[in-house]
């Protein structure tokens, strides 16, 4: 007979950062409907920011705690703490970007903020999931609010198309994930990541059909999570969805969805599958070659196609694809024995730098966007240095950081990712990363050229409200602090030990 677990067995204290936010989202939805008038929805935004602040504070207090909860399906460790901080910072900046935007666009509804909080809680649970079932449930909690948010600017056709396309392809990707999880369960007899790790030892020793099922299952899970993080060839939805969705939603999903997806992928390969090799005694995991080929294809396609874009949101969409390739370099490097923890640290450092830089770039782009959604062409940046020199200077820094220029967060992120790839013996992948970074300089610097070197009156940037400016300032400070004082970030990430002990 099924035994009902006690509160002590669930160990809910370790889940408080994510659980508090999920419960807060439910409460916010009720409070908004009952107590907040239609013309005062800014109060809902401030309540959402307070909820994020409360969750961030709780995360600081639980940062050094470790253990499992929900009968082993949830794990709390430093990796969880750092991922929670990145995800919560993403949500905080995204809500600041949203406050005035949704009012200008005529879509000011309180459920907007509750949907963001629900998605954020899914990302946080995904970062701490210790079981394939928990990853799947968290993936759906992350994704379903994003489908609605992408189509939030109804009745605009592009926004409706964005939400529908994201939903249909997202449903397919979830099916791939479930099928892959079923095959891994069939091979190992468990969905728990630590138990899968234990089962893999005997599977590698015995060989046979179980190893084949495990390999196919891992590939299908890569398809499911690959869609979420937008790596090639699962990236085709990205430019259309990014262009059609409301700009703050695009900024949010460009970072948040990646953070959740890569967190789950890193846990899977480092906790469950670090020693899954084709032949006993191999020093590289069976999945490494496929992962580094996906990373290489993502780098090449993302950067080359971005060169031809003339819309800033589509340019940043292909840029987002390219940056998923750089993070994927670290994930692929984790397949080499002894590199796992360094790979996880590099991926988190890159995510932190990318979070500040990309949200800042979207904030400036949103500043010159018009109420009807126009004004996102690259030519709209012409002369911005004349009309709004402060915004132009910040956008220039964000573009240089995305390129990977020294003294910016982007340079530090790429430094550690490339170093990890080289240490793992993936020299061809590191060379591809360097060459594609050179290509990326063309389309990033083009924005700077438009702002500073082409004649024009410049956009008045009516969207640069106080909330948007605050968001951009936060992003700027984060980008420069990581770039100039990287030890502040590395001192935190260096404490992460995610890889299974046998694979370190």
Describe this structure in words.
With 504 residues, the chain is mainly α. It has one domain (7-503). Helices cover 72% and strands 1% of the residues. The chain has helices at 7-10, 16-35, 42-61, 78-104, 111-128, 132-150, 157-188, 193-206, 209-229, 238-244, 247-272, 288-306, 312-333, 340-368, 384-387, 389-403, 409-423, 427-452, 466-484, 487-493, and strands spanning 67-69, 74-76. α12 packs parallel to α18 (427-452). It is globular.
Estimate what percentage of residues fall within beta strands. under 5%
Helix content: over 70%
What is the gyration radius calculated from CA atoms?
22 Å
Gross morphology: globular
* Spatial arrangement of strands, main beta sheet: 1-2
Stretches where pLDDT is under 50 for at least 5 consecutive residues are none
Mean pLDDT: 89
Give the helix tally: 20
State the major sheet.
Answer: 2 strands, antiparallel
What distance lies between the first and last C-alpha atoms, to the nearest angstrom?
40 Å
Report the structural category.
mainly alpha
- What is the string of helix and strand elements? HHHEEHHHHHHHHHHHHHHHHH
The total strand number stands at 2
How many domain modules? 1
Summarize this, please?
By secondary structure, the protein is mainly α. The protein is 72% helix and 1% strand. The longest helix is centred in the middle third of the chain and has 32 residues, at 157-188.
